[in-house]
Design a protein that fits this description.
This protein is an all-alpha fold. It contains six helices and no strands.
């Protein structure tokens, strides 16, 4: 994996790769309107009652779609920069926004479904399935809960904000009295 004493570098490289994948830049760039936003559109068109299709709900759907599209375009830029050998901060930015927009979209889906969004009609015991990061159509109830993990995977959203603030914006880091202390010498509580 790495030489003795290079554990931090290995850990940071691993987390960076995880951030890129979670943010959407690890594989091919998804097509416009795919992923979680596709589920929101499907619910709007197929399951939402006319009473739930208010102007406010429509406006929120458009805002979520725009955020999804901006994220998709950011991932295209990140992919092009990586291929050109010039990786930038897009991985951290995309991971942070992916976590938030994914949670917001599935919360919107559950809200749009009303009571059906919080009730699982099957009492059958079943194994947990691997839903991935966005899940298949009709999985909004599960994905509402699953999306919460997106803010932890690949480094918490709080860590992403620190990385962006310190490394991208050049803001002062949070005060740390253990910054130059070897891990083994850091006091534990």
């Amino acid at each position: 994996i790495g030489e003795v004493g290079e554990g931090w570098r290995v850990a940071m490289t691993t987390l960076s790769n995880e951030r890129t994948t979670i943010g959407g830049g690890g594989g091919g760039v998804p097509k416009r309107g795919s992923g979680a936003i596709a589920e929101a559109l499907r619910i709007w068109n197929e399951e939402a009652s006319e009473a739930d299709k208010t102007a406010v709900a429509r406006d929120e759907l458009v805002k979520l779609w725009v955020r999804s599209e901006v994220l998709r375009l950011t991932n295209i830029r990140a992919s092009q920069n990586r291929k050109a050998g010039n990786p930038g901060p897009e991985g951290s930015i995309a991971k942070l926004e992916f976590a938030k927009v994914n949670m917001d979209i599935y919360e919107y889906c559950v809200d749009l479904l009303g009571m059906a969004g919080v009730v699982d009609y099957s009492y059958e015991m079943r194994r947990a399935d691997n839903l991935g990061l966005t899940g298949p159509p009709g999985s909004s109830r599960k994905m509402f809960l699953r999306a919460r993990a997106n803010s932890i995977e690949g480094g918490t959203s709080e860590i992403q904000r620190n990385i962006i603030g310190e490394r991208v914006l050049g803001l002062a880091g949070e005060p740390r009295n253990d910054k130059d202390v070897a891990w083994i010498d850091v006091p534990r509580s």
